[in-house]
Amino acid sequence: MIKLYDTKLRRKVGFTPLEQGKVSMYVCGPTVYNRIHIGNARTFISFDTIRRYFIWRGFDVTYVQNVTDVDDKIITRAAQEGRTAAEVAAEYTQAFIDDMHAAGVMDPDVRPKATEEIDAMLDLVQQLVDGDHAYEVDGDVYFDVRSYDGYGQLSGRDVEEAESGHRTLRADGQGLEDRKRHEADFALWKAAKPGEPAWDSPWGPGRPGWHIECSAMSHKYLGLPFDIHGGGADLVFPHHENERAQSEAACGCTFANHWMHSGMLQVNSEKMSKSLGNFLLLHEVLETTRPAALRMLMLQTHYRSPLDFSVERLDEADAALTRIENALKNIDWLASNATDGAPDVLDSVSLRALATDAHEDFMSAMDDDFNAPAALGAIFTLVGEVNTMVADKSLSVADAEAAVAARNTIAELLGVLGVDVDAAAAEASADYPLEVIALAEQLAGYGGSDAEEAVEALLEARARARAEKDWGTADGVRDGLAGLGFVIEDTPQGARVSYEG
Ligand code: AMP
Ligand code: ZN
User: Fold this and answer.
1) Is the CB of residue 12 less than 8 Å from the CB of residue 2?
2) pLDDT at residue 166 in the model
3) Whose CA is closest to atom 2 on ligand 1?
4) Are residues 140 and 168 in contact, defined by beta-carbon separation less than 8 angstroms?
5) Measured from the CA of 263, which atom of ligand 1 is nearest?
6) Ligand 1 pocket mutation pick from 25, 40, 105, 236 by most atoms within 8 angstroms of CB
7) Which atom of ligand 1 is nearest to the CA of 42?
8) Separation between Cα atoms, residue 446 and residue 457, nearest integer Å
């Protein structure tokens, strides 16, 4: 059984889905006023990993993530740039989707936008007003936190101590706090200021508060209750406390069955944030770093713990990824050079047992509140064991089968965590210069148009020439490849090529 840490219960609990075999998840999305930084990315990658693991464990997952496309920060940016809020939001919504694709994060099943869900929000606000959970003041509508018994339970705060997350002053200079019945009461609906985006409502033109959108959208797309509500730990209060209060007050039911929060990505022990200026934008990091390496870095820390980011750690994660890739390439190469009739040199029974152990260790680590560092440990152990077993060996066909099975286990388990090693390797060969195709045509009679195949054809031609003691042709192939940046290494198991660029 999968165990997860539930923020509200403050302990790990066994996960029983509301509907057998299914998981409904809602993870708060970005406010689209600029490109996201790698702190934001950590939260999205954490929940992407959790989602992928549920899928691998056979669950049918429905994953909803909103886009907050109306907000003070968007309006401010639009005003600074002389654009409409809708233009700013559209630009950064697309940039966010592009960034998530570049980082290898799966698309949500539904990605609702706040501005397209105003009716659902108005219905919810109306329901809260009708049920005496909300009150209107001059076109603003506030949630009355004392009308709902459970306020503070998620974050473990006392209502009387709780402070409002909103400290914005109105255009008329009057503090919001003065207008509310209780300091922790929060806006469900905000009266429009001149020039701001506004929608008609029973309380006059205005726009939704931030919290109401997630309540309305999760209800609409997942139904209540749903299984898991997630987000960064900084959202527990006030955002998630408020979402929960308004949703449960309105429906008289449980909102999210479980609450999960990921820890903050930090730099020098300080949260990475726009306001502190200590941020690195995701798309900038991905210009020089492979997405799989960034993912490796994220996976090396448990999703609930703070993650201390540094460029050195990112480089180390990249190196760890390269070691795994090289191990897999080595096995592939040994397997492609396996010889019929060669004696079996591997203990394939224990090799298969090691792969089964890794599989089990991986699963028990991930079942235990998605312990990715321990799961990675199981994969690394297998990599090391297989490496040692195959080192300097010429494999028989039976050996190769066992080695490739272990190799495939490594690739599969990394894939569950969102690290696609085979794609990363394909990317490396995508760097091969296209001139190698012409070289293969000339020296090996190659007729295709694939650089990787061309290299293989050249190596085969060289091996044939060497077998026939045709040293001129063999050297010609080696020199031709060297001229394009390839290095050939002759080993007892045959020639190996690497591209140095
Ligand atoms: P925002 O656009 O600020 O609402 O943030 C979008 C998501 O990123 C939320 O789930 C936040 O919890 C998360 N987030 C913001 N900063 C960090 C950080 N330094 N580390 C991890 N997650 C973060
Ligand atoms: Zn939310």
Assistant:
1) no
2) 44
3) 30
4) no
5) 21
6) 40
7) 21
8) 7
d(CA 185, CA 142): 6
**Residue of 43, 70, 71, 229 to mutate, ligand 1, most atoms within 8 A of C-beta:** 43
Range scoring the smallest mean pLDDT among 93-102, 255-264, 355-364, 464-473:
464-473
Does residue 139 surpass a pLDDT of 90? yes
Structure token digits, residue 393 = 């060996």
Confidence of residue 171 (pLDDT cuts 50, 70, 90): very low
- Identify whether the C-beta of residue 85 lies closer than 8 Å to the C-beta of residue 197: yes
d(CA 61, ligand 1 centre) in Å: 23
Residue 162, pLDDT above cutoff 60 = no
Instruction: Compute the distance from residue 214 Cα to the ligand 2 centre, in Å.
Output: 5
Q: Which atom of ligand 1 is nearest to the CA of 234?
A: 12
With cut-offs at 50, 70 and 90, classify the pLDDT of residue 426.
Answer: confident
The mean-pLDDT minimum among 63-77, 147-161, 360-374 falls in: 147-161
DSSP 273-325: -TTTT---BHHHHHHHS-HHHHHHHHHTS-TTS-EE--HHHHHHHHHHHHHHH
Return d(Cα 469, Cα 67) in angstroms, integer: 66
β-sheet with 307-308: strand ranges across: 270-271, 265-267, 307-308
Q: How confident is the model at residue 309 (pLDDT cuts 50, 70, 90)?
A: very high
Say if CB 62 and CB 25 are below 8 A apart: yes
CA of 5 to the centre of ligand 1 (A): 19
Ligand with minimal distance to 92 CA = 1
| Alpha carbon distance 226, 23 (integer Å) | 8
- Around ligand 1, the residues with Cβ closer than 6 Å are 28, 30-31, 39-40, 42-43, 231-232, 234-235, 264-265, 271-273
Q: What per-residue confidence (pLDDT) applies to 176?
A: 52
